[in-house]
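Side project, low priority. Logging it here so it doesn't get lost.
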Amino acid sequence: MKAVVSITVDNEFVIHDIKVIEGEKGLFIAMPSKKSADGEYRDIAHPINVETRARVESAILERYEQTLAEEEA
């Protein structure tokens, strides 16, 4: 795990505890989740379609990379 982030949608709704993770194929995000009674982890909040997930992931990863670059400068 590289970072834990929060996002605000339209200045009206916030989602905390989104994880930025480095996997075998590069960075990706994991939405906040909760362990259920059967031991499985289930997302608490998540985009409902592929397009929205891609937009959210892109925005988060772009900001993550920007923050790293600023810290290095």
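Brief comment: Residues 6 and 16 are 4 Å apart (CA to CA).
Revisit when time allows.
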